[in-house]
Design goal:
232 residues; alpha/beta; 9 helices; globular; binds adenosine-5'-triphosphate; nucleotide-binding; P-loop_NTPase; ABC_transporter-like_ATP-bd; ATP binding
Length: 232
């Protein structure tokens, strides 16, 4: 399998602080990858670099062999940590907006998922609870037929029962040759859907491995390993 993401000596410095230091990382196509690390370890910074919202201070990041830009944005479906959608819009209007903006957006897929979660498409975002807003945004992002999905804390505000449905929906709706990169602190909730994990700490990659290696060779869950590695 070819790499959808390649980082070579990737460094990002904010003013004087290095958020990422000389990262070398390859992420293959067709994998669901957990980007895991303590607060302030550099997860969001890496996701923003992937999406071209930040530029590297040095080193390079390639998406499908290309520097982030207009071409790569067509291939990447991004769920940011904080919403960028206008609160006053109705869900059906946002669906139209996504449909006009992204050629790969599948309206019927979005409507079906919204229906399953009992979300009325005539409701305005501003009238919704935090968790319901998160569900709407995740559904919109997963309704694109993208090569790479970058989900920054996708299920933090969602109740545990809906989390399971959402995670199953994620698995069912992505192409097997596309990649999902998920940053989250809710490791035990998502670890069953992950193929690989990347542990990041203080802007450096601490560990990259297959989840099966953690389970079968080390006899641990990802959550247990994370707690051991990052014990305060
Ligand atoms: N705009 C900014 N200006 C200055 N420093 C920043 C900025 N954004 C992030 N940082 C710093 O860069 C480091 C990495 O931050 P980042 O948001 O990437 O971490 P994170 O792993 O996503 O954290 P969390 O799990 O808390 O969301 C932190 O020390 C943070 O304070």
């Amino acid at each position: 399998m070819s790499n959808i993401i390649e980082c070579h000596g990737l460094t990002k410095v904010y003013e004087y602080k290095a958020a990422l230091s000389e990262i070398d990382l390859n992420i293959e196509r067709g994998r669901i990858v957990g980007l895991l690390g303590p607060n302030g370890s550099g997860k969001t910074t890496l996701i923003k670099l992937i999406n071209g919202l930040l530029s590297p201070t040095s080193g390079e990041i390639l998406i499908d062999g290309k520097a982030p830009g207009i071409e790569t944005k067509k291939m990447v479906s991004y769920l940011p940590e904080r919403t960028y959608l206008n609160d006053w819009m109705r869900v059906c209007e946002i669906i139209d907006f996504f449909g006009d903006f992204y050629k790969d957006f599948d309206r019927s897929r979005a409507k079906e998922m919204l229906h399953h979660l009992d979300i009325d498409t005539h409701d305005k975002l501003k009238t919704m609870s935090k968790g319901t807003k998160e569900k709407v945004q995740l559904i919109l992002v997963m309704s694109r037929d993208a090569d790479l999905y970058c989900l920054d804390e996708p299920i933090g505000g969602v109740d545990p029962a809906a989390r399971d449905y959402i995670l199953q929906t994620i698995i069912q709706n992505y192409r097997t040759d596309s990649t999902i990169l998920i940053s989250t602190h809710l490791i035990s909730d998502i670890e069953n859907i992950l193929d690989d994990v990347v542990f990041i700490q203080n802007g450096k990659i601490r560990l990259t491995t297959e989840v099966d290696d953690i389970r079968f060779k080390q006899g641990k869950s990802v959550d247990t390993l994370f707690r051991e590695v990052f014990k305060c």
